[in-house]
Amino acid sequence: MRRSGIASFVLWICLTILTLLPVWWMLVVSMRPRVKLYSKSFLIDDLYWNNFLAVLNSSTFLQYLWNSLIVATSNAALVCALGLLAAFGLSRYKIGGGDNVFFWLITNRMAPPAVFLLPLFLLFTKWFVFGDFMLFDTKIGLILLYCVFNLPFAVWLLKGMLDGIPLELDEAARVDGATTGQVLSNVILPLARPGLAVTFILTWIFAWNEYLFAATLTSSAHARTVTTALAEYVSVTGTNWGEMAAMAFLTTLPALIVLGFVQKHIVTGLTFGALKG
């Protein structure tokens, strides 16, 4: 038992180092001038803030940051609303082939995102065009697109949690005359708040970190997100590694801060259905 505990502790230390090493190296590179960029030291030699100041003083960075906040927050809210309705239907009603529908939803998360890239590009530029408006290079387009990939995950997560809420509570509310909408809003919704919070946070982080679709389906600062801005530091004259690392570090901070504050609630929410079941 003692050896098992030591082995677990060593494994935990190794995994922690492997996880934090890229973040630390990103911080080290961001605090180096170009002349010291290729130094073999793993430590921060000087507090060189010019790379961070250059990024923060850039007007495009703030625009990209604002775009990411709008896209990630709107997507997470929409996914939670639609996911709760879908999970409620799958959890409380017997639907013909319901298990197959549930499995089909999960398969949407199994395919590599690159598989959908060309069809989505054609849809955004050729099909979903209404006069002067088209989904390409718009924040609305990204919000709706991320729903395609985040909604199955939300349904999978919320269904497990709703299955853990006793059906007798629904029946008791219906005996008192509650409609389906009142059962959902007055009984299910208050009990499912931990699960909704976890779903909102995880889908927000997925949308915040997404790069492939945002880089392909947007072309201007009007809709581009902060992760796509990293590619702008690569030019024909070379790569500005210092400012790129500084922007990458600043981009990572919101997700790290959110995870740090809600880590305990994420574990609680993920095990909610198992505990109630």
The description of the largest β-sheet is: 2 strands, antiparallel
- Structural class per helix/strand content? mainly alpha
Count up the helices: 12
The end-to-end span amounts to 30 Å
Q: Could you report the average pLDDT, rounded to the nearest whole number?
A: 83
What sort of overall outline do the alpha carbons produce when their principal axes are compared? globular
Q: What integer value in Å does the Rg equal?
A: 23 Å
Helix/strand order = HHHHHEEHHHHHEEHH
**Model regions low in confidence, pLDDT < 50 over at least 5 residues:** none
Please provide a written account of the structure:
- There is one protein chain.
- This protein is mainly α and 277 residues long.
- The protein is 70% helix and 3% strand.
- The protein is built from twelve helices and four strands; from the N terminus they run αααααββαααααββαα.
- The chain has helices spanning 2-30, 50-56, 59-92, 98-107, 117-127, 139-163, 167-175, 180-191, 193-209, 212-216, 241-270, 272-276, and strands at 129-130, 133-134, 234-235, 238-239.
- Strands 1-2 form a two-stranded antiparallel sheet.
- Strand 3 (234-235) and strand 4 (238-239) form a beta hairpin.
- Helix 1 runs antiparallel to helix 11 (241-270), helix 4 packs across helix 6 (139-163) and helix 6 (139-163) runs antiparallel to helix 9.
- It is globular.
- The mean pLDDT is 83.
